[in-house]
Structures are given as structure tokens and as C-alpha cells.
Q: What sequence folds into this?
């Protein structure tokens, strides 16, 4: 599936629905899109990765960079993953300890409590 | 398929858009009666993609347009990928260690997970490196 990002607002959250593969070929576009949204003032960001077919360390690096930028601006970032593959990779690299992971956009955007 | 191993050699230009093709080759090779599970194949796909990414980056650092060499060997119970670049060499012992996951500074490290993923997602992982290039060898065995 081709890489793509669709942005929609859910209350205070900007939800980025990502599809396709995130690797060295697509990571620059993903990083640039995230950066432009944060630069435009988005403080609360949800990355819906349910439609992502493949992520490698380059893609995980983009997620970490996004978390750093959003949090350093005083905001919050949450990930949505429904597939076992990506969730397993995040657990394997123990990034679930520094990134907040949810199983649906509804769960990620409801309230402020984790 | 007989128990004899079959090797296929191919080359890719050192460009990121070819990563997806290499991953497709992993999937197709695993389908050749290797007895590998889908989960194993998906893990191995990540490992091979990491090795190929490193090779592409090595050629970029060396300003080399030469092709990256990939050898795929398939047997009845095992699949191997050997990715060879002509970069300046890679020295695993010089890789900076990442902070522990609970350390907030962990987010400052957007890179550095590739080697770890190759190590844990392949059954065998060997790097041979020198000033004229690197060969990453990865293997996956039938469970």
C-alpha cells in the first residue's frame, strides 16, 4: 500500500491516520508532515498506525522524534496500534515505555487520563 | 523442492525505494517450501530491511552509486540473506549504546535500533566489515 497521511481534528487532538510502509524511503515524508503539523501549533497529536503495513527502525525513529518535539513544546502524543506486528515491534524495542500506546482512536482521544 | 540449497544473486541500486522490493523477495523466498511461519517471515523481513538500509546508507556516505549485492539462499528448512555493500566499513563495537528505555533521554536517539533488531529477529546474524565494505549475513531456520 502506498504511504499516506490523512489529518483530522478530534477535539483538541490532531489525528494523523497513517497508511502504508514507514521505512527509509517514506520516513522523510512522514517526518516532514509531522513537523509541519507541530509547527502549525498542534500540541496534542494522535498517530493512528492501524493501517501501517510495515515499520522498521527508521520508522520507529520518526515516532521517537515526534514524541520528543511534541512533548518539548508542552504537548502530548499518543499512538494507536491495532495489529500485533507493530505492537510487538514497539514492545520488543521497549519503546512502549516512552510512548503511550492505545488500541483505538476513541481510547486515545477520550479524556486526559492515560 | 529438494533438500539442496538454491542461491539467487541480485543487485539493487543504493536507493531507499528498492527496500520494498527486497522485502518482497524475503516473502517470496520464504514461500519456497521452507516451512517458515508467517510470523517468522515478518520478523525476518524487518531484519533484512535493516541490513539493506544500512547498506544504502553506507553507499550514501561513500558517495557511491555502485549496486548493493544481495544473495538469497533457500533450502528446505532455512533461508539466508547476505547483503554486501562497498561503503567505508561498519564497526559494531563503536556503536553508541542507547539509554535504558525508562530514561527520558531515550527519545533523543532516533537511530541505533537497527543492529538490535537484526540481532533479535534473525536466528543467525553476522557482520563482516572492513575499509572496503560490509557484509551482513542473516539466517532464519524452520522452527
A:
Amino acid at each position: 500500500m502506498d504511504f499516506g497521511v490523512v489529518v483530522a481534528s478530534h477535539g483538541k487532538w490532531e489525528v494523523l491516520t497513517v497508511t502504508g510502509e514507514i521505512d527509509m524511503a517514506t520516513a522523510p515524508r512522514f517526518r516532514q508532515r509531522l513537523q509541519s503539523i507541530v509547527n502549525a501549533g498542534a500540541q496534542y497529536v494522535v498517530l493512528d498506525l492501524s493501517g501501517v503495513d510495515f515499520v522498521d527502525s527508521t520508522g520507529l525513529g520518526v515516532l521517537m522524534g515526534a514524541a520528543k518535539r511534541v512533548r518539548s513544546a508542552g504537548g502530548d502524543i499518543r499512538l494507536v496500534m491495532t495489529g500485533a506486528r507493530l505492537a510487538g515491534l514497539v514492545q520488543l524495542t521497549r519503546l512502549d515505555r516512552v510512548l503511550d500506546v492505545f488500541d483505538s482512536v476513541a481510547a486515545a482521544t477520550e479524556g486526559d487520563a492515560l | 523442492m529438494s533438500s539442496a540449497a538454491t542461491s539467487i544473486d541480485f543487485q539493487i541500486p543504493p536507493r531507499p525505494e528498492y527496500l520494498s522490493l527486497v522485502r518482497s523477495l524475503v516473502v517470496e523466498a520464504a514461500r519456497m517450501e521452507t516451512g517458515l511461519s508467517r510470523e517468522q517471515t515478518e520478523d525476518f523481513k524487518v531484519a533484512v530491511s535493516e541490513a539493506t538500509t544500512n547498506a544504502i546508507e553506507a553507499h550514501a556516505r561513500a558517495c557511491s552509486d555502485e549496486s548493493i549485492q544481495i544473495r538469497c539462499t533457500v533450502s528446505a528448512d532455512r533461508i539466508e540473506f547476505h547483503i554486501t555493500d562497498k561503503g567505508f566499513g561498519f564497526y559494531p563495537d563503536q556503536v553508541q549504546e542507547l539509554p535504558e528505555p525508562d530514561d527520558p533521554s531515550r527519545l533523543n536517539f532516533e537511530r541505533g535500533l537497527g543492529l538490535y533488531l537484526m540481532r533479535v529477529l534473525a536466528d543467525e546474524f553476522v557482520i563482516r566489515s572492513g575499509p572496503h565494505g560490509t557484509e551482513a549475513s542473516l539466517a532464519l531456520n524452520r522452527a
The first helix of chain A runs from residue 27 to 39. The domain at 4-107 of chain A is CATH 3.30.750.24 (Transcription Regulator spoIIAA). The interface with chain B takes residues 21, 23-25, 54, 56-58, 60-62, 64-65, 67-68, 71, 85, 89, 92-95, 97-98 of chain A (CB under 8 Å). Chain A is about 40% helix and 30% strand.
